[in-house]
């Protein structure tokens, strides 16, 4: 083996932001911006984009979704073609009697939107499990910090705290960008679990800290812990650390 150990710091392939949700949409933005038709066949579109100067591509006015990324890893069926065709195709054939790769054939019926989304979801889960299986060949150290979602807040939020309505707005955006169903129930659960109900008055600083903890747990800590749990199931050396040291000039007291 080229190396024997791996360190994951404040990130995991199981995190909700690890995959780009709508890569084709952002690819279309870039294509339009540099005058490459997004309707071109994939190979021709790729050639057109490769012929464009990097500065033109980088100047595309793309706004990343809240709590997500516009560019990054995605399940596209091209880079991960063999696994996508063999594994997810078999699942698709069991679900509706046809092979998923056959959808590219003009005479084959196109899948419904529900089936397409279901297969994409299954594919993402299987790919992540495959990544964990590969990662289990190595010893692993996973680290998180005390305030993982610190940069969600602006300078005024950090200094003065936030009110309950701002907390609701932030958490609503997170839930909407991460989940598809039962959004109100999920939001209510988050607020309930990350509110200190023993405090008679909810101070803006406390609301800020509770919101910070909720987002840190959801986006970084929980996926990291899940990664270590899956990794340790294969009886490898798995370690988890929490870095909470703050200097005397830090924003949080020691």
TrEMBL record:
Signal peptide stretch: none
Domain of life per record: Eukaryota
Domain Carboxylesterase type B: 2-249
Presence of keyword Metal-binding: no
SUPFAM superfamilies xref list: alpha/beta-Hydrolases
Alphabetized Gene3D superfamilies for the sequence: alpha/beta hydrolase
InterPro entries attached to this UniProt entry: AB_hydrolase_fold, CarbesteraseB, Neuroligin/BSAL
A Pfam family: COesterase
Keywords assigned: Glycoprotein
Family to which the UniProt record says this protein belongs: Belongs to the type-B carboxylesterase/lipase family.
Name of the molecule in the record: AAEL003138-PA
């Amino acid at each position: 083996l080229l190396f024997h150990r791996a360190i994951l710091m404040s990130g995991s392939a199981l995190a909700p932001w690890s995959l780009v949700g709508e890569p084709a949409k952002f690819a279309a933005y870039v294509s339009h911006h540099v005058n490459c038709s997004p309707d071109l066949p994939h190979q021709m579109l790729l050639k057109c984009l490769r012929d464009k100067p990097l500065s033109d591509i980088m100047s595309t006015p793309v706004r990343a979704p809240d709590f997500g990324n516009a560019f990054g890893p995605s399940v596209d069926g091209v880079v991960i073609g063999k696994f996508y065709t063999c594994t997810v195709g078999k699942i698709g054939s069991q679900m509706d009697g046809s092979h998923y790769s056959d959808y590219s054939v003009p005479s084959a019926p196109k899948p419904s939107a529900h089936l397409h989304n279901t297969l994409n979801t299954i594919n993402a889960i299987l790919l992540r499990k495959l990544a964990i299986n590969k990662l289990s060949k190595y010893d692993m150290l996973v680290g998180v910090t005390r305030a993982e979602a610190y940069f969600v807040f602006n300078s005024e939020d950090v200094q003065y705290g936030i009110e309950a309505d701002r907390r609701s707005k932030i958490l609503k955006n997170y839930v909407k960008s991460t989940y598809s169903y039962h959004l109100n129930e999920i939001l209510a659960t988050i607020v309930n679990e990350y509110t200190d109900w023993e405090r008679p008055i909810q101070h803006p600083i406390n609301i800020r800290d509770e919101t910070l903890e909720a987002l840190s747990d959801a986006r970084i800590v929980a996926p990291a812990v899940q990664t270590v749990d899956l990794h340790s199931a294969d009886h490898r050396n798995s370690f988890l650390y929490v870095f909470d040291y703050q200097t005397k000039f830090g924003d949080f007291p020691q």
